[in-house]
Amino acid sequence: MLTTATCSVHADSVCEHSQSLHENVSRRSVGALFTASYEICLCATRVADAISILLGGNAGEVGFTVLGTLLSGASPLSTRQLLMVNLLTDMFPTMAVAVTPTDHDSADQACEDSGPVGVAVFEAPLSRQIYHRGVLTGLGATTAWLIGT
Q1: What is the pLDDT of residues 6-61, one digit of tens each?
Q2: Residue ranges of the domains in the chain?
């Protein structure tokens, strides 16, 4: 059974719109429940994007470091260089996702598609995004390193 307390507890832990969700759900109207589910869909999508950026970028960096070490016998990046790569592949893209305003037309389409909604976003689609981002980050870094050596 879905109760007002359950919705507000989950909304508090999901996104910044939790106060408005709590107010909407506490009115117990059907329209408010649809609004709450729409907001949770948007938040879950943004959280999945941020997670894929962070984990995929780090996986690509690790893959590049291991491959570069295997090819050259020494680490291709110094500690400072590795921290700079980490900064560029993690912080800036994640901040861009966090501060990007929501385009409600594309968000409506994303939440209405037959794809996964809510917590289901964190299963197979997230794994695919992490894999793709990791491979692209690793290939890009390896290609740039091979061109530079």
Answers
A1: 444 444 455 555 556 555 555 556 666 666 677 777 777 778 888 888 899 899 98
A2: 45-148
Predicted confidence (pLDDT) per residue in 65-123, tens digit: 999 999 999 989 888 988 888 888 788 887 888 777 766 655 555 556 545 555 566 77
Backbone phi, then psi, for 124, in 5-degree steps?
A: -60, -45
Would you list the DSSP string of 52-109?
HHHHHHHHHHHHHHHHHHHHHSS-SS-HHHHHHHHIIIIIHHHHHHHHSPP-HHHHHH
Question: Which amino acid, residue 85?
Answer: V
**Composition of the chain by helix, strand, coil, percent to 5:** 85, 0, 15
